[in-house]
Amino acid sequence: MNNRISTGMMFNQSVSLMMAKQARMSHLEQQIATGRRLVTAKDDPVASGAAVGLDRTLASLERMELNAGNVQNRLGLQENALAQVGDMMGRITELTVYANNPALAASDKQSMVTEIEAIRGNLLALANSTDGTGRYLFGGTADDSPPFSQVDGKVVYNGDQNQRQVEVGPDTYVLDALPGSEIFLRIATGDGHVDGAANTANTGTGVLTNVTRDGSDNWNGQAFSVRFTAADQYELLDAGGAVVSTGSMKAGDDLVLNGVRLHIDGVPAAGDRFEVSAATSRDIFSTLDSLIGSLKMDTGTAAKSAAQQNLLQSGLRDVARASERMIDSRAAGGAQLKALDNAADMRESNTVTLKGTLSQMRDLDYADAISQYQLESTALQAAQTLFSQMQQMSLFNVIR
């Protein structure tokens, strides 16, 4: 191939060289101005693609941080609400223990009724707590309306049983606030496994103050009853009412029957019965309603007073189970708050690592860029000087 040397060719080469140097300097100026090595994807296609992926990961971590903030707010409010409920249960326990004094005046009992009714109202308000954004804490996933309402004097749950799982870190999830059904409803009675109650037709002064398993695992879950034939003599009846055995009870001693331990104070009359069965469940509001009802009972006779004491003792056991439920619920919430702290540490570590990697990919080495800029500037000046000298040259001068 023949290369033709001409004035036009030399002119075009010089112009192309200057334009290339100017373009390079312009690109360096953009890099220096933005502090970025990757101004456009063509600067490093592989690094640019990887950087986009890292940007998405960082954006995902930021979203998880927002999720964590929302859940932490709700769990914190749940903790505050449950702490208040626990205090209310403590006060109910104090009032119930005080109410077990048979010599208590009617006016004192009425004062207790008023206080328990106020506590019940406050408890319902706490059960309908919101998170400050209009969402209800204890409604499960149906948190757009109050989870609890009162219908014909009874509290009804309108939420669902679901509990949200929220992603707060890479493959890390925490549970949102507990649904109200797990906190205020379905609370076990008795000791949580076995329960007992005095028959409403009892005529003596026997009061069932404690019922629990004896620790031997002999109780098979079948209901039975104890029927007194005298103040210190009893018959053990199975669920069908058949006599299984007989025995005697010494005042102050526990009765241990079928793996269940019973303690009965007072003097049962012949024919009085005390029923034992597997623990059922009831909501905390029904427990308070029962306590209020028992405090309003007529206690004009010793038998009626004993009936009230039996109901109060039953209520005391149920309130104890409700208090335990609050403790368990707070513990569950605390575990989720701890998981949030761990997730925050993990997000922070990942963010620092990712930003460091992005910096290596994108950020400009100013010393190197400025050196290149000075080098290109010098080269451009040389090209411009050469072009200026070439403009004064011509091949005709050589031919002459």
From TrEMBL:
Membrane spanning stretches: none
Domain named Flagellin N-terminal: residues: 5-141
Keyword Secreted attached: yes
A Pfam family this chain is assigned to: Flagellin_N
Keyword terms of this UniProt record: Bacterial flagellum, Cell projection, Cilium, Flagellum, Secreted
Domain Flagellin C-terminal as annotated: residue spans: 324-397
Chief location bin: other
Domain of life, source organism: Bacteria
Keyword Hydrolase recorded: no
Compartment(s) of residence: Bacterial flagellum; Secreted
Recorded family membership: Belongs to the bacterial flagellin family.
Protein name (record): Flagellar hook-associated protein FlgL
Organism the protein comes from: Stenotrophomonas aracearum
Gene behind the chain: flgL
